[in-house]
Specification:
With 108 residues, the chain is mostly beta strands. The chain has a five-stranded antiparallel beta sheet with strand order 6-3-4-5-7, with no helix packed on it. A two-stranded antiparallel sheet has the order 1-2. It contains one helix and seven strands.
């Protein structure tokens, strides 16, 4: 697994940079996904537009939450999926090369 990955970071309203950041590691009930893509949801738009209550820069990969890809690592207690499974996931930081998600929130 690479130690670093690329991820989108919103640095200000309507301003996005690609940064190199640490690859996340799955917690006990999580899986690590090598993302192949992520949808853009209507709920992403307020953060992009810059509402007064948001702070910048965002966490790397945020607000991507509709991703898909392949499982590349499992947490020690993750069940229901295997390394190599192609999945869709609900997460928080899927505008990146990798993201973690609860094993219970991925769909094969």
């Amino acid at each position: 697994m690479p130690r670093h990955m690329r991820a989108a970071v919103l640095t200000a309203p309507r301003t996005c940079e690609i940064r190199e950041v640490a690859t996340p590691q799955p917690g006990p009930d999580q899986v690590l996904i090598r993302l192949e893509g992520c949808g853009v949801c209507g709920s992403n738009l307020p953060l992009w537009e810059g509402r007064a209550w948001f702070t910048y820069p965002t966490a790397p990969g945020r607000p991507g939450h509709e991703g898909w890809g392949r499982v590349v690592a499992l947490g020690t207690a993750a069940t229901g999926v295997a390394i190599g499974d192609r999945v869709a996931l609900l997460s928080d930081c899927a505008f990146a090369e990798y993201d973690v998600a609860a094993a219970s929130s991925v769909i094969k």
